[in-house]
Design goal:
Helices cover 74% and strands 0% of the residues. By secondary structure, it is mainly alpha-helical. It has one domain.
């Protein structure tokens, strides 16, 4: 029963950390991130870098604190579509870097799967639940 109660929290924590740490890393190492974006031919780099930071941190906090977590999950899911295609385009690479980027691509697809799950279930099921919400104290109810 305890695992069922806390598994949404654990899942949200694990998903949120990757986005929160990535957003903070972009702030701390702004110039390296700009260079990476430039190497991919991105336009309006300062604008898109700021958007990436805001999406990652806002979406990550949304998941972490379960504040509108479905919205945060769908926001991050949509953000990962272009991010994954632009930055992990393994099909254009050769050698060890092709394999490395393929694994990053697949990792992002897996994260997107988790975000779809969070985005698709009722918010009440995403938050830590009390024993009462599981019906533990509902012995007086008759089973049909």
């Amino acid at each position: 029963m305890q695992l069922r109660r806390y598994s949404p929290l654990i899942g949200r924590l694990l998903l949120s950390f990757v986005f929160l740490l990535s957003g903070l890393a972009k702030i701390v190492d702004w110039s390296t991130t700009e260079q990476t974006m430039a190497s991919k031919g991105m336009p309006a780099i300062p604008f898109f870098l700021l958007v990436a930071i805001l999406v990652e941190i806002a979406g990550g906090l949304s998941l972490l604190f379960a504040w509108r977590p479905r919205f945060g999950a769908w926001l991050l899911f949509l953000y990962l579509i272009p991010t994954t295609l632009i930055f992990h385009n393994f099909w254009d690479l050769t050698g060890p870097e092709r394999l490395n980027q393929m694994f990053h691509f697949l990792k992002n697809l897996s994260i997107m799967g988790g975000l779809i799950i969070i985005g698709s279930i009722p918010e009440a099921d995403i938050k830590v639940r009390t024993s009462h919400e599981f019906g533990v104290f509902d012995e007086h109810k008759k089973v049909a």
